[in-house]
Amino acid sequence: MNTNSEVIIVKEKTYTIIYVPKRKLYPLFGIAFRDQCVAYVREDLPIVVKRFVRQHELHHLTDTANWSGWIGSEIRANPIPGLKDPIGLLVSTLLTLSSLDRIRLYLKRFK
Prior knowledge:
Blueprint: E1 5-10, E2 13-20, H1 22-25, E3 30-33, E4 38-42, H2 47-62, H3 69-77, H4 79-84, H5 86-97, H6 100-110
């Protein structure tokens, strides 16, 4: 297993978070693959952002709801980790708003 990873057990199910170089995910901060029980998080992010993104992606991995597709998934995965880590949510949001590439990514997803 990648040495830059961690295994997390939630309700007797094992999930893996793998920290990867920026070039592998940019402009994303992280991505989760629920069917594989694995998420990837950029290792270059500030620690407060990395911590929030880790929780955000872990929420995606453990989320069993399926209402409202991608938007519903993001609605569910932001507030819960954000309540636990409001500074992480705030800094992540500020980094997103300051990145034209991330803004373009979200605009493309909404279309």
